[in-house]
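Need residues for this backbone.
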């Protein structure tokens, strides 16, 4: 009964509050157009993606057109979205779709997941939105809404397959409903007072204490503004660059140069390189000083550094000891 009420309440809310005007919400949309939107929407705000999406499809209206493009032709229509490995994957996937599938995206999850950069969520989204298949597209939005409503915590681990089988609505509509609800009501700081599901929502009933408890456990006193960035500069994680000619050494930036925009500016001004910079993947203290590890990939420019392979870098990283 709780699942039925959840499904019914969500769909009723969606009828009145659906986000209008999103270009990837058209009734007749190709699997290619769905794929482009899903790649761009990964960890990027909807408002930022809209203009990129529209301009991209004007330049590359079909997978065949995209497959012909070089990286230099592609980059101006993608640059600014970040996570440039996604862009490389797009070009590789487009070529594979044309070469092996005659320009048509596969219609099975198994085949879709053989494509570069296509995981379980993107595969399900293509099947749901592009082919109207009966698939829940599990992503952070669905995780958050289901986790809070049924368990009181957006990060709760649960059996997704169980919900896949019990949700009876048309999945294409239901997926859109959850995504809009997650963005408009069940936000990072949820608007519980305006939530039509709150009477049965475990997050609301527990006053958010289950999620707050986890937040407190994860909270860290790490002071990013006084940290140093250890930057691991690479080309697609295959070649790593070092300013030291004899042994691999990450680029160690001045104190406070830790934000992504700082790191980009530093390498552009000092070395003439345009970078894609990822969020820190490790942090800690060395001799009491805060340190972050950051991966950065060269997009444009010619590096004049010594080159080391991936194994040498991993061996070096293993030697760096953080304070216990």
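Answer:
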């Amino acid at each position: 009964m709780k699942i039925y009420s959840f499904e019914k309440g969500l769909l009723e809310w969606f009828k009145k509050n659906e986000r209008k005007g999103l270009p990837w919400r058209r009734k007749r949309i190709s699997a290619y157009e769905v794929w482009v939107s899903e790649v761009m929407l990964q960890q990027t705000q909807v408002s930022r993606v809209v203009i990129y999406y529209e301009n991209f499809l004007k330049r590359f209206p079909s997978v065949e057109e995209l497959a012909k493009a070089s990286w230099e032709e592609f980059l101006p229509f993608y640059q600014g979205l970040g996570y440039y490995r996604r862009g490389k994957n797009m070009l590789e996937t487009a070529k594979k779709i044309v070469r092996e599938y005659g320009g048509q995206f596969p219609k099975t999850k198994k085949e879709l997941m053989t494509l570069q950069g296509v995981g379980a969520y993107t595969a399900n989204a293509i099947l749901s939105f592009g082919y109207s298949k009966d698939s829940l597209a599990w992503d952070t939005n669905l995780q958050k809404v289901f986790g809070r409503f049924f368990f009181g915590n957006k990060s709760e681990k649960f059996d997704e397959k169980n919900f896949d089988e019990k949700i009876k609505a048309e999945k294409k509509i239901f997926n859109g409903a959850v995504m809009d609800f997650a963005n408009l009501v069940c936000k990072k700081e949820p608007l519980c007072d305006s939530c039509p599901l709150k009477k049965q929502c475990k997050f609301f009933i527990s006053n958010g204490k289950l999620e707050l408890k986890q937040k407190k456990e994860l909270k860290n006193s790490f002071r990013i503004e006084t940290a140093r960035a250890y930057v691991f500069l690479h080309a697609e994680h295959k070649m790593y660059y070092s300013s030291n000619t004899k042994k691999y050494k990450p680029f160690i930036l001045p104190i406070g140069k830790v934000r992504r925009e700082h790191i980009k500016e530093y390498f552009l001004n000092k070395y003439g390189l345009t970078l894609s910079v990822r969020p820190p993947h490790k942090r800690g203290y060395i001799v009491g000083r805060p340190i972050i590890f950051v991966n950065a990939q060269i997009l444009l420019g010619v590096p004049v550094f010594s080159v080391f392979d991936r194994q040498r870098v991993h061996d070096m990283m293993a030697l760096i000891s953080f304070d216990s």
